[in-house]
């Protein structure tokens, strides 16, 4: 029976478990859209910007682990996908993108809207191919799906409209090759033995854990107990290892907090567990370092490496723990855990006490109240910037919650579209878009998507009319903040105009009720929280150069007539100073 290439591709997506395609319709994409319309088990989700389509697909894949799909029409349409696809690919999420193309006979003639998606998307994908003939189907389309699922990552199919509409004849070949169960990567026993010997010989061991330890929570903590090792983590490792963890010493990096940095620098053996942590300045070059990772490309590319172990974290723990001798002396562990508790109470926690009368609202306090009001199995999607800091420090993982963000690509505007994908994946689960006003403004039209599909996404906007992270970056470089502030926007009014229930909170006394009521609503809701634009994030390790830069920037600001703003910033951040 004759069918079109588009029909066959959509059938393959359904067979692979894809339930929806995110995108915006367009002429070259029409055969695919119509095939979706006629096929049971798959729907078209009409977003307002193709960038949001790619982010939404990534958000769904991030919480389900299953293949998702997005699409863009030729030229400008599919080019809009690229930012979200970069994000998905760097996060290792299985996404198939359909980049429709100009008529195949016109390729290479600088035709209207001509681009070359098969070339453009190469860096944002694990597989990118042009389908120029129906004879390539189903092998190329099937190969794209295999790459996306198995790597995992983004696979891009560039599909001219005329080819999508061309007929193919089934030859009885299976639509998909049955997927194999994921393999386990066993480490070399000699490498495991060498690591065990190093742990046994060390007096102060620290574990630094990343997202690669997912599924190995209990085993990693068993090693920490036996080795008397404090456990720090990266941002992506927070939801993996922080909960139910008596050895927790917090997080390192620009968003970090607690005693993690000191625990790494004071150790005589640092074990990197499932992390490709990129910030080399926070990794101690003078400490003997081991690294466990399932991807050999990660080994040693960030910092010194004395003991590499190539294998899955869970499998490595299974072989390693029986070889490690239980340490009797636990002074290092106890001192780091106590230091962490002190720092959390005196510095990080200081922002959240006695601030019920402080206006503008401290964002740290707002993050704590949100954390307390949210469901135990909530999905938080977090915008890049200062919201990353507040989420990292104040959202509490428990093994059931999820935190999704553009943590490797670092794109603005991801929270709302990520939340759209997460909500489609599980409409009965609470999804909270932890949005900044800058990020929300960039893809503001996706509020229409929430209303269109009545998605139960709760958008909590930390509205400080400022690009806070950029402001901080300028200050530590000795530059006065410039072009970081925006005109105040009443996002409550915007949401109400679109038919979304919304509230604006300016008084901290109203915050808890507004969040509790908003999260309990059916369907979409928006809570516009007006926060202090001068609240800054202080990393756990501050260099002399950063201090000099900050002082220089403040001096320039005063000389430029900004004394009032400098004093306001000081008042907003005095809680950073530890008190005995």
In short:
The protein is an alpha/beta fold and 580 residues long. Helices cover 39% and strands 16% of the residues.
Q: What are the salient characteristics of this protein?
A:
580 residues; Rossmann fold; 3 domains; 24 helices; 16% strand; magnesium ion binding; thiamine pyrophosphate binding
Architecture overview:
InterPro entries: DHS-like_NAD/FAD-binding_dom (IPR029035), POXB-like (IPR047211), THDP-binding (IPR029061), Thiamin_PyroP_enz_cen_dom (IPR012000), Thiamin_PyroP_enz_TPP-bd_dom (IPR012001), TPP-bd_CS (IPR000399), TPP_enzyme_TPP-bd (IPR011766), TPP_POXB-like (IPR047212). Residues 3-114 form the Thiamine pyrophosphate enzyme N-terminal TPP-binding domain. It holds the Pfam family TPP_enzyme_N. The chain has 580 residues and is an alpha/beta fold. The chain has 3 domains: 2-169, Thiamin diphosphate (ThDP)-binding fold, Pyr/PP domains (Rossmann fold, 3-Layer(aba) Sandwich), CATH 3.40.50; 189-343, TPP-binding domain (Rossmann fold); 353-576, Rossmann fold (3-Layer(aba) Sandwich). The strands form 4 sheets. It has a 6-stranded parallel beta sheet, with helices on both faces. Helix 15 packs across helix 16 (386-394). The chain is globular and about 75 Å long.
